[in-house]
Amino acid sequence: MPINIPKELPAREVLENENIFVMDVDRARSQDIRPLNILILNLMPEKEKTEAQLLRLLGNTPLQVNISFLHTATHESRNVSKSHLEQFYTTFEQVRDKRIDGMIITGAPVERMDFEGVNYWDELKEIMDWAKANVTSMLHICWGAQAALYHYFGIGKFELPKKCSGIYRHTVNAPTVKLMRGFDDIFYAPHSRYTDVDINKIEAHNELELLASSEEAGAFMIMSKDERHIMVTGHLEYDAHTLAEEYERDLAKGLDIDMPENYFPDNNPTNKPLNRWRSHAHLLFSNWLNYYVYQETPYEWK
């Protein structure tokens, strides 16, 4: 089944070229199907790239999904046009009276700052508090996962000696949990961050369960025991070339940065990276939509 997005959204052409089934809103309204309403709070700087990455995964399930994009009102994005935000995005004030089936909070390039130092932190806290009563299931990615662990569960972050960037091997810690259905015992996933969370605090927390982890990259997938919150510290949604683009960007800035680990074939940055995580990215999003959104959301919100 398709995802429903505006006709003019730039990601539409990208997805159609990849043979992803998309449907415009007018056609979707003619179908007698209760679609899932998914709200994406996109905090990433290059919003159009993130839109395509997430829509690619949300659009590859048997479920019909309505997508809405949210941006913060208290922060002005510098890497996207104002017209793009005005046409395709909404603010919290425009959705606070709605019920949402599923919500995604992305990463953000602010992880080295204290949470309270982020200029939209108060707004994000208000959104996360609202979500407790108005959203069936939350998927938090990278810094969004760290923000959720801090705000909901009191687990802070710490800065790493160097950036965690590359493709890392992960182990499934909770194979019987529905979110992990279909996952290989060992799988690979990208990480790109300067900070981490204490895996021991996660394992000791009586409201959290560690679902997958890496010896090199630490805690990867965490779920609240009420199954309302899923925190993913890496970037399964990334394209094959995303880490290469970030590496080139950091070099151009003159940063003292290491090459992404386990990424370029033969550790040669002129070689084209291979996507070794695509199937598990699709599994994560399809399992989330099916087991934690579709099967838990009432047909009509009261």
UniProtKB/TrEMBL annotation:
GO terms for cellular component: cytoplasm. InterPro entries: Class_I_gatase-like, HST_MetA, MetA_family. It is an enzyme of class 2 (transferase). GO terms for molecular function: homoserine O-acetyltransferase activity; homoserine O-succinyltransferase activity. The active site is at C142 (acyl-thioester intermediate), H235 (proton acceptor), E237. Substrate binds at K163, S192, R249. Keywords: Acyltransferase, Amino-acid biosynthesis, Cytoplasm, Methionine biosynthesis, Transferase. Pathway: Amino-acid biosynthesis; L-methionine biosynthesis via de novo pathway; O-acetyl-L-homoserine from L-homoserine: step 1/1. It is found in: Cytoplasm. Pfam families: HTS. It catalyses: L-homoserine + acetyl-CoA = O-acetyl-L-homoserine + CoA. It comes from the Bacteria. Transfers an acetyl group from acetyl-CoA to L-homoserine, forming acetyl-L-homoserine. This is Homoserine O-acetyltransferase. The gene is metAA.
